[in-house]
Specification:
The protein has a single domain, classed as Roll (Structural Genomics Hypothetical 15.5 Kd Protein In mrcA-pckA Intergenic Region, Chain A), CATH 3.10.290. The longest helix is centred in the middle third of the chain and has 9 residues. It is globular. β6 and β7 form a beta hairpin. The protein is built from two helices and seven strands; from the N terminus they run ββααβββββ. The strands form two sheets. The chain has a five-stranded mixed β-sheet, with no helix packed on it. A two-stranded antiparallel ribbon has the order 2-5. 19% of the residues lie in helices and 26% in strands.
Length: 84
């Protein structure tokens, strides 16, 4: 994956979504508890910064990195333009 690669696009049904819920939605965590544990340990980045707040509100356009994956969050509306 290159620096310009936005990663996998994850479309959320409504905004905002809590960080731990996004990790579950994207199937990067098997459970909410697993997601919360990873976040508390500082293993997740949001827009390039380590995020330890499991209920941090994630919105369309945010970039989440965890477990070697990059997630570009997109809103529910059709035709969302996602910028890297």
């Amino acid at each position: 994956m290159t620096q310009k690669d936005p990663g996998r696009i994850v479309r959320i049904a409504r905004e905002p979504i809590e960080l731990y819920q996004l990790l579950k939605l994207a199937e990067l965590a098997a459970s909410g508890g697993e997601a919360k544990f990873a976040i508390a340990r500082g293993q997740v980045r949001v827009n390039g910064l380590v995020e330890t707040r499991k209920r941090n509100k994630i919105r369309s356009g945010d970039l989440v990195e965890f477990a070697g994956e990059r997630l570009q969050v997109a809103g529910p509306e059709a035709g969302v333009e996602v910028k890297p």
